Amino acid sequence: MRVFSILFAAEWRHFRAAKGLVLLCGLLLATGLYGIYYGTTEIARQRQQLAALPELTRRNVEEMKAKFPGPADAGDIGYYHSTFAVHHPDAWAALSLGLRDVNPSYVKLRLLGLQNQLYATDNTNPLKLLSGNFDLAFVLVYLLPLLIIALSFNLLSSEREEGILPLLLAQPIRPATVIGAKLAFRVAVVLGLVWLLSVVGMLWAGVPLDGRVLSWLALSTLYCLFWFGVVLVVTALQRTSAVNAVALLGVWLLLVVLVPSLLSLGVAAARPLPQGIELTIKQREEIHGGWDRPKAETMNRFFALYPQFRDTATIRERFVWRWYYAFQHLGDLAVAPQAAAYATGLQARHNLAESLNLLSPAINAQTSFNALAGSDLPTHLAFQRSATRYHDALRAFYYPFLFRKVAFTHTDYGQKPRHSFTSQPELATARRGLLKLLLSVAAVFGLGLVLLRVRPVLPR
Fold first, then answer.
1. Residue 313 domain flag
2. Is 143 within a domain?
3. Is 370 domain-assigned?
4. What is the mean pLDDT of residues 293-310?
5. Residue range(s) defining the domain that contains residue 65
6. Distance CA 10, CA 181 (A)
7. What is this structure's pTM?
8. What is the predicted pLDDT for the residue at 131?
9. Handedness of CA 343, 348, 351, 352 (dihedral sign)
């Protein structure tokens, strides 16, 4: 143990003298702090947008009251009055933005057909979406392994190349002790940075101090240990420093870039999705066809779904709102199977990708971080289902006005249903991710120890 402590202290002195390594650690620390800043700023921007929606709704109501100063036809109100289905972020989303940079945080809804409104989003720079957002999870998953490689590619090879290893092994010191001390020091430095960034990020984002704190730290720690296990495997092969660096960078490219890309292509091929354009075209054809279809046919189809309104007066006018909203709803129902198949296909793709992410610890860690933050695909699909239920509630609110010919008054604005949805963590996904990372760590460290046993460290 004393020999181990001496070697550990020597590594600390060597690290302080190596200004380049200190600079790299400082650079990662600065990068991580920027990731935290960017994530918290992005979530603050989204919260600011969501906080402004009630005021927009209030102004819209005031405009509607000015436009219709007396009792009005509910059809006019449903057509011109907008409301919002809102998706509030969890505080943890500041550390792992996940899909919140791709999917909208709110949906603007009117009484018209749902599907076109549900998938309407603001235009976003596609290059920005391709590169992704720069949050703390991105730093930990994609950049941290590069620091580990820079610190450890010459873990033992530099001692051999400088002629120090023969002197070390001439002492009563086991090679495993030398490797262990060097590796332990680097693990301590990197984990110190990771834990510091994680704690700063949690405090900065104001996350609730629940069980997810330990889960985040455990995921970060296991992911770091996995890459140190990879370093141990490469070190056990006893190649030169240049070969080690190329090998480690090759493993990084394989596990962080190539395998995720191949997994994405494979999952897309194995779980094809229905074309969204087909859904849109079919809905528009159904809605536009409603103008030419006999009103009696449209209303009979609608009354089969809502028999409580069958006793309403026969439509003889050229245009009435209840007929208009009836074929709007029938247009939604016409594409309901395709919409359900699309959502089911997205979930199936997510499930398949999760089952295969053991092949890439980087994807496994990213998926787990997103699950902890409630910024993954299942959470967004849950929000869409919530928005659909909200649209159903709006229709249920308006239909009695429309079909019973009840005038819409100013007091009725306050009776309209409201919507709110807050992200919830996918803890089961995070737990599975922890287990997979633990298996990956055990595999690489086991392989490294076996290689050290079968290939004894030689001073050459």
1. no
2. yes
3. yes
4. 89
5. 24-279+326-454
6. 9
7. 0.90
8. 47
9. negative
